[in-house]
Amino acid sequence: MRNGLILIAAVIAATALTSGEYSSDFMVKLSTTTPQPNTTTPHPNTTTTTTPHPNTTTPHPNTTTHSPNTTTHSPNTTTLHPNTTTPHPNTTTAPPAPTPPTNMTKGRYNVTDKDGNICILADLGIGIRVNTSEVNGTFIVQPRKTTSSGQCSEKTADITLIFDEGSLALKFKNDETKQKVYVEFVEFDLTYAFKSGASENYGGKNESLELFSAAPGHSYSCSAESVYMGNGVSLDLTNYRLQAFNIKNKAFGTTDLCKADKPDYRVPIAVGIILIILIVIVVIAYLISRKRRSNGYQSL
Predict the structure, then answer these.
(1) Which CATH class name applies to 107-261?
(2) Helices (H), strands (E): how many in the chain?
């Protein structure tokens, strides 16, 4: 411990001596250095007035070029579809009105059996006439707008004519007991506007009849005939000819005329009788006058 303290003291003393030498030398040097005249010639004020340069900071054009709005507005991708809700034609239909006047037109209709043979043949013009306190008119069935359907059996056959405004059905019966073929059932249905504003429904049925009667294998023909269906409605048939059963070569058989078309011999017979009577009267008068003349003469 003691030796250590001695060593520390020696180090401190040496340091002090050394710093003293340096201090002495430094002072000697300062004293021997002759002060030089101020050779630093005062330069004229070289602080040249700094001419203010024109603002060399040339204002650059605004280089912050405004980029075109790159947020390109995409075309409205919600493509406006054409109005896919296609405007429907005006579905508000016009009020019902009568069809333009037309002439009665004859159409040909037929029905075939299961073997393809014609069992009903019909040529006719059809009118449905309504005569009531409110309506007076005739609906004419147009053949070009009419179709036929039906069926046949051994004893019965039926035909239905279907058109836009309704239908007409006829049922034929082959009556072997009476040796006749006739229509025993007629039915019609019609929806039509006889006057502008509203359509009306008309219907009728007539059963247990013996219409259009003809001998088997014969056809029934008439120039005009009406069938009353009730409630002021009549079925008018014009220039028609009908036959059911026993149709050969797809043609009508011998014609049986309706009463209206049968020759009426009553007038000719009456005229003949009158003529005969006149002739008889004349002959009798002649004979009487002759006898009188003969009685007036006397024999010589």
Answers:
(1) mainly beta
(2) 2, 11
